[in-house]
Request: fold
Amino acid sequence: MDSGPDEGLEDAVEFGAEIETRSLKFEAQDHGERLDRALARLVPAFSRSYLAQLVDDGAVEVGGQVVTKPAHRVRAGDEGSIDLRPTPQSRAFVPELMPLDVVHEDEHLLVIDKPPGLVVHPAPGNWQGTLLNGLLARDPAAGLLPRAGIVHRLDKDTSGLMVVARTRTAMDALVRQIAAREVRRQYVALAHRPWSGEPLRHVNAAIGRDPRNRLRMAVVDLDRNSGKSASTDIRLIEDAQAGCWVECTLQTGRTHQIRVHMASIGHPLVGDELYGGAPAAGLARQALHAYRLGFDHPVTGLSMAFESPLPDDLRGALAAWGLRYNER
Reply:
């Protein structure tokens, strides 16, 4: 996982007030060093990238002068100050009360049924109102865990089941299970165009950053582009004149995996405009729902399995296309 959320969490914990001013004195070991590197030594509780941002913002003085270049070279004996100001990232990792649909809870973990539209992690454009914020409000102890215990993600517009750790022991065990492909994740999806090919298809195609559009992922040739192996089993549930209703079982967990693999075989998801889909059947968001989740409890070892009912918007889309959904 990326380090950004963890750094932001550390920064947020340090803020007891809106602005905290700290005195600086550069020692012999700092002589000739970049300002941002020297600050990282003097203020070790904060990430270097955060400190460099404060320099850019004019929050650092050296020798009575505001310095705005992180590459400024300091001298032994220089004195100054730094205003530790909240950044959007630091403000993001704060508790926010919100309703969460918890389908299972014990002292080690939660299983949550995420609605469409809820962002999992704070990120540019969505610094607040995320699942992480809700977890911090629900249980203050979540603030002691990296990413508040979140061990896997669902895209903003994907609905369905997620497991969240409540202890470090459970978190480490769940991360190991996911890496070993021992967590069972199944999705249902509504896609454009009537189904083509065999009713059960195994898609084994590496996924990496799209070299032509860095905002997208794509199926890539690992001999030419960076990426990771990705494998999805796709089973036709029912066909329609306008599209198809399928079940997708993840064998790996790459970013946008189902969306990319479905588009790569000519069946982009309804509502998924990033990968060639379009709004249809009254549905504007991507038609993807994580309906089944299974894993061995990270502490007790008991086998656990959960299922999520289909959201109303997907039910309505199925009905519009004359498709059925049978509860299991």
Notes: The first strand starts at residue 20 and ends at 25. Confidence is low (pLDDT under 50) at residues 1-17.
